[in-house]
């Protein structure tokens, strides 16, 4: 299984365009601290890759990953499609950047597809440019592509809708509170049996996710805040209280172990999250002065 991590940041990235907190300012001064939006590239077969989520950074992420570069023919691309773990803007806006393709294959759960088609009107906007080929994503493992040793399956983790989809009617095959609004993605190499679990948006730690983590060889999991009230002191009364939609890094549930051989790596850090590439001390809870604008913007 070949996977490239294209980004690890939560909504806005690091630095966020309208933020001058110490984390974002530090990232501007030290390019090595910058973090693009959370995304993976997964190799389905030789010369055939899928993105896991399509972020606003998609163009830059493709350029920074040689495996995704086009060639040798002028318009031949190894990028075969996009797998979506949810319908959040930070994970879907990049689809529009693929409109130069003849067709865009999108693998998504029923509620996510419904949100993109009836909430964002993605079909009406993009089909004049490119064909949208939809494939279902559900709990049953399915081959990622016809010639691929990889299988993908969804582990439902949350019924949290994006804000733009709050008032949408459910699709015919979609229960109103369907917890497939947000899923973790299970990738299994059918030749080796090894697996990766990717959960870039994890508000809680459901039992089903724990079981999936226990059976995975590697888990990349959402974990951002140090404490529930971390953004609050700087956020003013405009920001509502938790739940954030992101697990705390210090949450005992988020630290529960998987199988003895499993490895876990953090995902979706914000500008206040220390990362291995930085030597910054643990951030102050008042670090980010723009949480009031940041939090409503991302819904996290
Ligand atoms: Zn910031």
Automatic annotation (TrEMBL):
<comment type="similarity">
    <text>Belongs to the PqqB family.</text>
</comment>
<feature type="compositionally biased region" description="Low complexity">
    <location>
        <begin position="266"/>
        <end position="288"/>
    </location>
</feature>
<feature type="domain" description="Metallo-beta-lactamase">
    <location>
        <begin position="48"/>
        <end position="232"/>
    </location>
</feature>
<dbReference type="InterPro" id="IPR001279">
    <property type="entry name" value="Metallo-B-lactamas"/>
</dbReference>
<comment type="pathway">
    <text>Cofactor biosynthesis; pyrroloquinoline quinone biosynthesis.</text>
</comment>
<protein>
    <recommendedName>
        <fullName>Coenzyme PQQ synthesis protein B</fullName>
    </recommendedName>
</protein>
<feature type="region of interest" description="Disordered">
    <location>
        <begin position="225"/>
        <end position="300"/>
    </location>
</feature>
<comment type="function">
    <text>May be involved in the transport of PQQ or its precursor to the periplasm.</text>
</comment>
<dbReference type="GO" id="GO:0018189">
    <property type="term" value="P:pyrroloquinoline quinone biosynthetic process"/>
</dbReference>
<dbReference type="InterPro" id="IPR036866">
    <property type="entry name" value="RibonucZ/Hydroxyglut_hydro"/>
</dbReference>
<keyword id="KW-0813">Transport</keyword>
<dbReference type="Pfam" id="PF12706">
    <property type="entry name" value="Lactamase_B_2"/>
</dbReference>
<dbReference type="InterPro" id="IPR011842">
    <property type="entry name" value="PQQ_synth_PqqB"/>
</dbReference>
<keyword id="KW-0884">PQQ biosynthesis</keyword>
